[in-house]
Amino acid sequence: MDLMDTVLNKKLGLVFVFAASVFLVINNNGVEASHNIYSRLQNAAAVEVKQLHRTGYHFQPPKHWINDPNAPMYFNGIYHLFYQYNPRGAVWGNIVWAHSVSKDLINWEALPPAIYPSKPFDINGTWSGSATILPGNKPIILYTGLDADKHQIQNYAVPANYSDPFLREWIKPDDNPLVVPSQEMNSSQFRDPTTAWWHNGHWRILVGGKRKHRGMAWLYRSIDFKYWVKAKHPLHSAPETGMWECPDFFPLALNGRSGVDTSKVGEDVKHILKVSLDETRYEYYTLGKYFPEKDRYVPDNTSVDGRAGLRLDYGNFYASKTFFDPSKNMRILWGWANESDAADDDKAKGWAGVQTIPRVVWLSPDAKQVVQWPIKELETLRGQKVDMNNQNVEQGQHVEVKGITAAQADVEVTFSFGSLEKAEEFDPNWANLDAQTVCSLRRSDVPGGVGPFGLLTLASQNLEEFTPVFFRVFKTKENKHKVLMCSDAKSSSLRPFNEKLYRPSFAGFVDVDLSADKKISLRSLIDHSVVESFGAGGKTCITSRVYPTLAVNDAAHLFVFNNGTEPVTVQTLSAWSMNAPQQMNQNLEF
């Protein structure tokens, strides 16, 4: 019996086991590194899947571990999501390319795995990659395989039947691999090929890597998509950033919110290079100019090119991937809301990991950052609605938002305030601190001037547990205002602190001028163990994974709060109970 028979016919599950010598990454910042090995658990199929903390409307399979959203794609009216999945347990291991399809990005039908280890060029692993639509409307997948020597090499797969609207079966031709690391490169740090782009007679892709401690976006060119040649220079690199995983390189229009094809170049677009930092388990991105004739990317000088750079999401968010949706003329982003590190026995809950809600991405009007917003289709899941308008909130007040399912909700709110005079001084000693550290020093229970104000999500009735999402306004020595947005998990759970539960104070600064309107907006998508928040219309985004013990299901509450001396007004607030999609991979079987 071959592996295809095992997976598709007899549904006995995958039987291969990765050896302990598979390359490991460091578990930093308390976030689950995707390549950690739990040999005791990685083949232990869940007997009972615990429903506590499972999401209600985010993308998840019925059980087991998921990570990177490898290759989102739109093809012939169908959305495809390929993602990393362990069909045998709730920890990383035995990874296959799971495959689901949708017509609306909300309801998903699971198909058989598209790719799984079975040939010499991927026998030890089928890791992340991308999808590209070639001329003639022919999709192709590029992915990282681990060969018999555990070298990371780049392979391709094609549909067995292009006329199948769901592309159920994929073939890995025997002329793989397409790209192998050269002798001077580190073959254990060479992975995650990007979506290809075309210019002046050549296809181009990037492969993530590192040289010493320098992150590298290795560039390869091909005329026919079969024979690839490494460029003399990488497209870009940056010192002291370590391994660059899951690179993504794409253009955004300088004006408006419309998306553009990945191959678009010219003066009317700006390019974005996003990388996932293996050492920190965070991502960062730069905006800049791509010079196609030289195949060089030069970041603008408007943000840091390194660990302290701009991030698409300042929370539990990793291995993100965008794709161009020609049906809506939009660029859409998926991200992995990675698991927080929990006690070893918690891995037996039967599931781990979710994908974020897909987001539309575009450039801010000043072209200095990416803006994101949940796809419009999410609103089809909205149910019972409540409103709160012109509600004044004094210092120390908590006003409950009643009438919705607070554990599974969508909340949009605009806060206003009369004056910025009471804004706290931004301590000069914080100049070299990141936003997360500042938030840990000025949490939601620390009184301020203008703020902290915001939402207490997934809160217990008496506030023994809550996850605050809030703003705090500072005044700098230049008499300018600096806005901090936090999603602080410190008080999210009563689980003992001696357990390995990551409770960070995720935060980012918000590039917004409050002096004119003196108002700021917040949207939070609350889903049992996920809180996705979008500040100032999506300029700053934070995803938190939290695991309350009291504030669960019907015992969860939602409050508006203010701990600043400046009164805050809830100008408008709309909150909806969120329904579950009609279909969410219920048919996934192995």
UniProtKB/TrEMBL annotation:
Compartment(s) where it occurs, according to its Swiss-Prot or TrEMBL record: Vacuole
Name of the protein described by the UniProt record: Beta-fructofuranosidase
GO process terms (BP): carbohydrate metabolic process
TM region(s), chain numbering: none
MF annotations from Gene Ontology: beta-fructofuranosidase activity
PROSITE patterns tied to this protein: GLYCOSYL_HYDROL_F32
Signal peptide range: none
Keyword Hydrolase set for record: yes
Organism: Prunus persica
